[in-house]
Amino acid sequence: MNKFIVYCTFLVLLCASSFAQNSQNKFAIGFYNQENFFDTIHDVGKNDNQFLPEGTYKWNSEKYIAKLHNMSQALADMGTDQVSKGCAFIGLSEVENKNVLNDLISQKPLADRGFKYIHEEGPDQRGIDCALLYNPDLFEPIDYKLVPYVYENNSDRNKATRGFLTVCGKLGDENIAVIVCHLPSRYSSAYYRQLGAKQIVAIKDSLQKLNPMTKLFIMGDMNDDPHDKSMCDVLGGRRDLSSVEPLGLFNPWWDILFSGTGTLQYRGSWNLFDQILISENILDKPHIQTFTKRNKTVEKEVEHDKKTLTYCGSEIVRLKYLINQEGKYKGIPKRTSASGKWLNGYSDHLPVVMYLCKED
User: Fold this and answer.
1) Is the separation of the CB atoms in 37 and 96 below 8 Å?
2) What are phi and psi of 106, to 5 degrees?
């Protein structure tokens, strides 16, 4: 973990600049697992052989172009039921490289809004990374860092996996930080997701130590549900507003999952692995403000200022075209491929969106 702490020190360079005010008073932000978004070219050193023309999925130009079309439309539509311009930014997982991202933002639905992306090549053995798409009219990045996932045991260090894409910037003229994650899959034991959650906490604490007023968003495919130990106990995502501690995190997805729906299905049951957690200072509740008075640190409870970014809702995006409407898999996400058959679909996960309001 010492190596991991060293990486965290780089974060003190983030969140240090100012940008012009954004006139919007409602914002959407999102996350979407892209499900194996590979191009058709082999990346040297990566195990992407399944997604080559001669591979298991017979992944060719026709399928890749269809995937670009489908995903760009879904990404552009996210959040538009409440915000006409859609999402200010969207965290992505399972994208292969910059080639895919360049092709993605060149698609008309995203190009029309001038979408850009933030990405840094990671060490994942399959070659899949996290990224952040953003609309520069709504969100302006300041700096970013890919903080690596660090194993505690030497014997695990040949299992290189996705790191934590940490981006700081301005949304609605306020300092925010976004951590985009893709924790180890359920083919690994829960220990590795808990270790990942522990490292997210280290990043979170580093950012909040630098500036306790920074509004923090942690998003990703967590490969665990909100009530699992990694999310509930280690990361500390609370279900109820009243139980969120100062500098703590709220996880709004508990009740959505317990209502009987989620973002992916396994053996007929819903899971909600795709989550966005937020820091306590985004919530419409009294919070503790720390300041210095006569060279002493003083804590004071203050009401939340609704003229700052304020949480005002979350939803799973259930656009009709993302979901099978008939047959054996009716009601579940329409995948790109299943059982070796190309379905010309989207993803095995549904996207999620969170809304933020700001009074004039």
Assistant:
1) yes
2) -85, -10
